[in-house]
Write a structure and sequence with these properties.
- This protein is an alpha/beta fold.
- Helix content is 50%, strand content 10%.
- Helix 4 (65-74) crosses helix 7 (108-126), helix 14 (240-252) runs antiparallel to helix 17 (297-324) and helix 16 (268-278) packs across helix 17 (297-324).
Length: 657
C-alpha cells in the first residue's frame, strides 16, 4: 500500500465526521479562530506534603490571579477592603456567603449588587475563551441563565429590561445564593485553564487525601510523581516495604489522620502488636516529632511503641528488597547484619558507631532480615487494609492516569526530582534489565516499570519487580525522583553522630546552576528555544539564606520553597508557585497561611510577592502552544480533505446530520 492510498484511507475516516465541504470548511474557520485566542493560564504547584488548607487557598486564589481580576474590574469603584471581601467570597463562597448573609435583615439589594459584580468579573475571565468552552464550564442547572447574563451588552436597548428581569427573578425565587456560588466557582475555573502539580502530594502534612479529592475534581490537571507519591503508590500495590515505610513516615510526624480518617486503614493491629512486644522496652529513639503535650502521656508512649515496631519491620523489609534486586546497587544499605549486638554498635563504611537503641526483641542476629511470625501476621493484616482501601485505590489510579515522572508542556519540562547526572556532568548511566539507560530513556523506562508495579498481573515477575521499583524510586541510589545517594533513616534514628546523617545529593543539584547544562537537559527532551524552562520541585529553596529559586541563568525554576510547615523554619517562606499566562511566567513567593478560619473571617489572603520571570514580547496566542500545534495539524488535515472533495477523490454526502 503506497502513501497516497494510506492517506486516502485516513481521509475517508475523517470524512465520516466532516462529510462535505460545508462541514469541513466550517470546522477550519472555527479552529483557525481558536488559534488566535490568548493562551490559557497555567498554574504550577509543588511539594504540597498534605498541607490541605494552604493548598485549597492557593488553588482558590490561583496564586493571586483571582484578586488581580477583582482589582482590574473594580479598583476604581470599590475600596480595597470591599474588594478583599469579594475576593474571599470567590475563594470560599459557601462559608463566606453564610457569614455575610447572617448579618443582614434583608439581603435583597446585596444579592443584586454582588451578582452584578461577579458577572463583570466573570465576563473578564471568560473573554479569552470561546463561548462554547465557557458554556461547558457552567453547571447544567444554571448554564443557560448565566450564559445569557455573560453575553449581556448594555448598548442593546431592547434587552436591557430582559437582563434586569433575569437578575430580579433569580432573587425572587430564592436562587441568589446558589447562583453566587456557581459564579464564584466559574471565576476560579476560568482564571486557571490548566493545573500542574510537580510532585510530593503526600506525607508530613495532615490530609493528603483531601488534596487528592480536590485534584480529582479539577477540570484540567497533570501530576509529576514525587518520591513521596511513588511510595504511597507502592503501598497501594500491596508492597509490604512501601506500606511499612508509609506508616513509619506517618508515625514520625504523628500524622495518622490521613491513614485512619482519610483512607479508613485501621492501625489497631499495629497498636496491639506494639503493646505486646515493646511495652517495657526502650522507645526513646522513636518518639514522634510533636510535643508530648499535644498527646496524652499514654498516647505519646503508644505512638513511640508503634513507631519502633513498624520501623524495625521497615528495616527488615528494605533489606529483603535490596537482596532481591542487586541491580539497585544498594548492598551498602544492608545495615541490620552490620549490628554487633554484644558491643552495641553498628559497622558502617566510615567506621563503627554506638547505637542509641539496641533493644530489638524481634531481630534474630543469625537471620536479621527475617520477620517474626507475629510480624508476618501483622504485615498481612496491614497489606490487606491498604489493598481494600477503596479511596486509596481510587486516588492511586488517578495518580497513574494523570501522572508520570515528567511532562513536556508548552515548552517547559516538568519533573519533581532530577535527571541523574554523574560527577563529570554527563547523564548518569543505570544498568537495568540488561540495558544501559540514562537521560530521557531512563525516565521513560522507570515510568513503565512503575506502572507495571500496579497494573501487571499479580504473581508475575513484572508485578513484583515493579512493586520493588516503586520503593527504589522513593529512596534508591540516585533515583530520578529521590536524587540522593541514600536515605539515612537508620542513622537518624539510631546513631548520635550527625556526620552519618548526611544524604549526598546527586551532582545534578550542582550542575543545574549552569545554563549550558539546563539547555542540554531541555534538548534531551526535545525542547529548544529561549523561552523553554525546567520546572523542578523536591529540594526546598532556603530563601532566608538568600538562595534564589531561579537557577541555570534563568533556565530552571525550583518551586519547592516550604509549602510544608515542617520545612518553613528552614526555608523562611511557605513555598513558591508559578503562573504562566498569555503575557509570560510569573513566580510567586508565599508567606505562611494564617488558616482557613482566619482567611474567611478576616478576609486574610496569603501574603504573596510576585515577579515576572519570563515576560513575553507579545501576547502569547493558542497557536504558539502545544494545543495550537495540534489544532494546526487538524486544520492541515481538513484542508487536505477539502482538496480531496474538490478533486473528486472523495464524494460529498450533503445530507444534514
Amino acid at each position: 500500500m503506497n502513501d497516497r492510498t494510506q492517506r486516502l484511507d485516513y481521509l475517508r475516516l475523517l470524512a465520516q465526521q466532516y462529510p462535505n465541504v460545508r462541514a469541513a470548511s466550517s470546522e477550519i474557520i472555527h479552529l483557525q479562530a481558536i488559534q488566535n485566542l490568548p493562551k490559557g493560564t497555567e498554574h504550577f504547584m509543588s511539594d504540597l506534603h498534605g498541607e490541605a488548607e494552604a493548598f485549597v487557598h492557593i488553588l482558590n486564589n490561583a496564586s493571586g490571579a483571582v484578586r488581580e481580576k477583582v482589582d482590574a474590574v473594580l479598583r476604581d469603584s470599590l475600596p480595597a477592603d470591599e474588594r478583599a471581601q469579594l475576593a474571599t467570597l470567590i475563594y470560599y463562597p459557601e462559608e463566606k456567603l453564610a457569614e455575610l448573609v447572617a448579618t443582614m435583615s434583608d439581603p435583597t439589594e446585596w444579592y443584586r449588587i454582588t451578582l452584578s459584580r461577579l458577572l463583570e468579573i466573570c465576563r473578564l475571565c471568560a473573554s479569552k475563551y470561546t463561548r462554547a468552552k465557557v458554556r461547558r464550564a457552567l453547571p447544567r442547572w444554571t448554564g443557560d441563565i448565566i450564559n445569557e447574563l455573560l453575553n449581556k451588552n448594555n448598548d442593546i436597548y431592547n434587552k436591557r429590561e430582559y437582563f434586569d428581569t433575569v437578575i430580579s427573578s433569580i432573587i425572587e425565587t430564592d436562587r441568589a445564593e446558589p447562583f453566587i456560588i456557581a459564579m464564584c466557582d466559574l471565576i476560579k475555573r476560568l482564571v486557571v485553564d490548566h493545573l500542574h502539580i510537580v510532585g510530593d502530594i503526600f506525607d508530613r502534612g495532615p490530609r493528603a487525601d483531601i488534596i487528592m479529592d480536590m485534584l480529582m475534581a479539577h477540570h484540567s490537571v497533570d501530576i509529576q510523581w514525587g518520591n513521596h507519591d511513588v511510595l504511597w503508590m507502592g503501598a497501594a500495590t500491596g508492597s509490604r516495604t512501601c506500606i511499612a515505610t508509609v506508616l513509619s513516615n506517618s508515625m514520625t510526624y504523628n500524622n495518622l489522620d490521613v491513614i485512619e480518617t482519610g483512607y479508613g486503614i485501621s492501625l489497631r493491629p499495629l497498636a496491639l502488636f506494639a503493646d505486646e512486644i515493646y511495652r517495657d522496652r526502650d522507645v526513646s529513639c522513636f518518639q514522634p516529632r510533636v510535643s508530648a503535650s499535644s498527646l496524652s502521656k499514654t498516647g505519646f508512649e503508644r505512638a513511640a511503641r508503634m513507631h519502633k515496631a513498624i520501623a524495625v519491620i521497615q528495616f527488615k523489609l528494605e533489606g529483603l528488597t535490596i537482596r532481591r534486586n542487586p541491580s539497585f546497587r544498594m548492598d551498602d544499605r544492608l545495615l541490620l547484619d552490620k549490628i554487633d549486638f554484644e558491643k552495641k554498635l553498628v559497622h558502617l563504611p566510615t567506621g563503627d558507631y554506638p547505637l542509641l537503641d539496641h533493644d530489638f526483641p524481634t531481630i534474630d542476629p543469625a537471620d536479621p532480615y527475617r520477620l517474626s511470625p507475629e510480624e508476618e501476621q501483622l504485615m498481612a493484616q496491614l497489606k490487606n487494609s491498604f489493598l481494600r482501601s477503596e479511596k486509596l485505590q481510587r486516588h492511586t489510579r488517578f495518580l497513574y492516569s494523570k501522572g508520570g515522572l515528567y511532562k513536556c508542556y508548552n515548552g517547559n519540562l516538568l519533573f519533581h526530582g532530577c535527571i541523574p547526572m554523574d560527577e563529570q556532568g554527563g547523564f548518569m548511566q543505570f544498568e537495568f534489565g540488561g540495558q544501559t539507560l540514562s537521560g530521557k530513556a531512563l525516565m521513560d523506562w522507570c515510568e513503565t516499570v512503575a506502572r507495571e508495579g500496579y497494573y501487571a498481573r499479580e504473581g508475575t515477575p513484572e508485578r513484583q519487580f515493579g512493586k520493588d521499583f516503586l520503593w527504589f524510586l522513593w529512596c534508591g541510589r540516585h533515583s530520578p525522583s529521590f536524587g540522593r545517594d541514600h536515605i539515612a533513616t537508620f542513622e537518624r534514628r539510631l546513631i548520635a553522630d550527625k556526620s552519618t546523617w548526611v544524604e549526598p545529593k546527586n551532582p545534578y543539584y550542582t550542575y543545574y546552576e549552569q545554563d549550558e547544562v539546563c539547555v542540554r537537559i531541555l534538548r534531551e527532551f526535545g525542547l529548544e528555544g529561549e523561552h523553554c524552562h525546567i520546572v523542578n520541585g523536591h529540594i526546598p529553596v532556603k530563601s532566608k539564606d538568600g538562595e534564589s529559586p531561579i537557577k541555570g541563568g534563568g533556565r530552571l525554576i525550583v518551586i519547592d520553597g516550604g509549602f510544608c510547615r515542617a520545612y518553613q523554619p528552614t526555608t523562611g517562606i511557605a513555598g513558591y508557585t508559578l503562573v504562566f499566562d498569555s503575557w509570560g511566567i510569573h513566580i510567586t513567593a508565599h508567606e505562611p497561611f494564617p488558616g482557613r478560619e482566619t482567611a474567611i473571617r478576616d478576609n486574610k489572603d496569603i501574603l504573596s510577592t510576585s515577579m515576572a520571570f519570563d515576560r513575553s514580547e507579545h501576547r502569547i496566542r493558542i497557536r504558539e502552544t502545544d494545543i495550537g500545534r495540534a489544532l494546526q495539524r487538524s486544520i492541515d488535515d481538513l484542508k487536505e480533505l477539502l482538496a480531496a472533495y474538490r478533486r473528486g477523490d472523495l464524494k460529498e454526502d450533503d445530507r444534514e446530520r
